[in-house]
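On clarity, I found the account of how folds are encoded harder to follow than it need be. An entry of this sort, consisting of the sequence and the corresponding backbone structure tokens, reads as follows:
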Amino acid sequence: MANYNYDEAGNMAAYFLLTFLLIVLVPFSLPSASSKQPITEGVNIRKYFILAIGWALFAWVAYKVSTAEIENKVYNPFEILDIKNGASIKEIKSHYKKLSKALHPDKVKLNVNLTIEAVEARFVEITKAYKSLTDETIRQNWERYGHPDGRQEVSMGIALPKWIVEGKNNIWVLGVYALIFGGALPGLVGKWWFGNRKKTKDGVDARSAATFFKAISEESGMDDIVSSLGKSFEWETTPASGHISELSELETSVKKRLGHKWDELTKAAEALPENSDIRRKGLALLYAHFLRIPVPPSLQKDQIKLLLQTPVLLNSLLSISTTRNWLAPTLSAIRFQSYLAQAILPGQDTLKYAQLPGLNEAEAEELAKKSEIVSDVLRSLEESGDARITDLKRAVSQWGQLDLVDASFRVIDDRLVTPSSIVYLVVKARLVPPPTSTVDAVPPVSQGAIDDEKRDYEFLTGKQEAEDLPGADQNRRVAHAPRWPSSRKAGYWIVLADPKSNRVVVPPMKISDVPHADAKHPDVYRSYKLQFQAPPQVSTFTWKLYLISDTFVGEEVSQDITLKIDDPVLLQVEEEEEDEISDPEEDSLAGQMAMMRGGSVKKRMEGDDSDEESSTDDDEQSSGESSSSDSD
């Protein structure tokens, strides 16, 4: 029969609580992969406060467990007699006599803390331990059942304090169980279920994704992207209650700068009368960021939330565009992110120098008219003695110009691409600082470093999409985006497309941590690979490779790239013909030419020389005999 023992001290329940707290606290304490939000936001403060209380409770319970006294349930007569294991019978008897004299109830003096019952229990315990080691029957019981009295009842511990299951507390325990399993648990499951149905895998409202699906088209540009975002703000932003006057003043300032374009935007937002004020608010906050208009303190929190949510919306729009293989909206969505990061009005490429610190829009536009090259602009400002040149150079060094080192199509263990084979687009890139009076121009990467076959093969056969960073590179630096509400790394997108048909060949891939090269280390670059299946037909495809920044305006490179699909049947025939053609001999003219080209030749054997010499001798002998016969 089992004997159930409740955890009177609560030690077992403490272990259960520690495990539960650890399972809950660890995932919520790990940093999220998404962009960091400012710590001033209320939701983060509540999260950190709850985590602090949780970890404090974990530390307190862990301390209580570490200091709790746990009774040892394993019966050990040597430990009870305070004698070493394996002691002889003579030593056990001698030690027992000393203990029995000292602990006999008639010899022990009683006091307040030592009662006669405790003394008798202790004496019975040592007597039983002594007999366990000396009496044959009792010793067999101990060895067989672990107790001198023989088989005991099965004892099962329950990790609950006894007061929880006492009869007088039944109603409260049942109430707590009903609240947890009948109310809280179904509520959490329902919230999770319906929350997942309301959100897409990209983390946006399902209605926003439906808006993008309907709004963008094959030829959509930057204005269509803005219009789609404005419509989605209905489900991504909060109403403007309580800040009507501040929002009205902000709209007036934005309209003053945009003119009729603002009327077009708001007209599209008001196409659906319901919740049009929320869409107007979102557009006003967004364009206040683009135009660098100061926002009232009452609206700053809403603007930060809107800006941090906009890249998520753009990624959702990008997913929809690439699913349909549309090139124009894909490029527009990627480029729009750079305007957003640098707070520059979309489409205003003449303002790209406004990304640099201390330059206003008028100065940036004037510098763009002089030169499109950053190094030339820095040189002209330095020659004019501009006091901001030090900060400008520092910002440009963090910026870095994108350099496409090499791009090629590769197939593992094959030199040619055949129909429907697995192809890798291998892109090698680096960042170089623009040359100035204090910074030397970075030379091109050496051809030997580009054609490192061992390095390329190890990367191609590996599982990672990006090569390990070269050495202790310093590319963990934060991107220069002073007007963005949180820190961010510079990101770039690899896009393989066919501009003639306005189609994306494969879904774009985002990359980061592009290494920085300098004049002392010009061969620094990093490889990235994009896997796809080759077309099924034999042909030659001329595509275009784009490498576009989503952090810096105008920072992109592109080049034409050709994929040739060869016929495997013809290749097999060519290989067979090559095998049938034997190598030329080493001492022949063809062999000498082949050796100069680095080709293979047939080595001449020693036996061949002797055969030739013997044949020569025979020829000479036969010719001599014929001449003598003629003379006769």
